[in-house]
Amino acid sequence: MRVRGANRGRFSVTELVCRKSGERSRLIYRLHVYRGRRGEAKSFTWQDYRDLIVVAHHQLQAPVVWVWDNLNVHLVDELALFFVENEEWLTVFQLPSYAPELNPQEGTGRWSSAAWPTSPPPTSTTWPAL
After folding, report:
1. Mean of the per-residue pLDDT values for the chain?
2. Torsion angles phi and psi, residue 26, rounded to 5
3. Based on C-alpha coordinates, what's the Rg of the chain?
4. Which residue, 60, 64, 53, is CA-closest to 14?
5. Which DSSP state fits 21?
6. pTM across the whole model
7. Residue 68 contacts residue 96 (beta carbons within 8 Å)
8. CA distances (Å), 80 to each of 41, 43, 87, 118, in order?
9. Which of 16, 22, 93, 106 has the fewest CB within 10 Å, making it most exposed?
10. Rama region for 50: left / alpha / beta (φ>0; ψ in -120 to 50; rest)
């Protein structure tokens, strides 16, 4: 987003799509405003993500399945500890850093000369939990 004024500041947004069987899908999001002030966080912290997970759990009133990418703040030890402490209602899956077998374009790229497999890709993949 463009911020008018002294060219200082930016907005970051994080959102999640929630699906509960038999109910309408939901979009839960949070904005983070950075104004360039001393000591102010430029982006979301691990505490912001933790709070968003808790809000989703309370709003859905159900267990939560969370899928992470490998953003550095998603991998901090404090979040991993939070996941372990709340495993009765929170299941976390960590996406792999690189999974060429899930990208149909990868077989034709410059990194691989092998032909794309003739069998269809798997319909579901289980990611290792944290």
Report:
1. 77
2. -130, 150
3. 19
4. 53
5. T
6. 0.65
7. no
8. 21, 19, 11, 39
9. 22
10. alpha
Bridge-based pairing state of the strands 64-68 and 90-94:
parallel
Q: How many CA atoms lie within 13 A of 85 on its CB side?
A: 8
CB-count exposure of residue 9 (10 Å: 0-12, 13-18, 19+)? middle
Give the pair of three-digit tokens for residue 117.
């497999």
Distances (CA, A) of 74 to 25, 105, 107: 24, 27, 29
Query: How many residues are present in the chain?
Result: 130
Query: What is the residue whose two structure tokens read 């850093």?
Result: 97
Average pLDDT for 107-119: 50
- Phi and psi at 19, nearest 5°, equal -130, 125
Using the predicted structure, report yes or no on whether residue 82 has a pLDDT greater than 70: yes
Identify the pLDDT of residue 54.
Answer: 93
Residue recorded with tokens 């069987």: 21
pLDDT at 51: 92
CA distance linking residue 52 with residue 98, whole number of Å: 26
Confidence of residue 113 (pLDDT cuts 50, 70, 90): very low
CA distance 98 to 5: 40
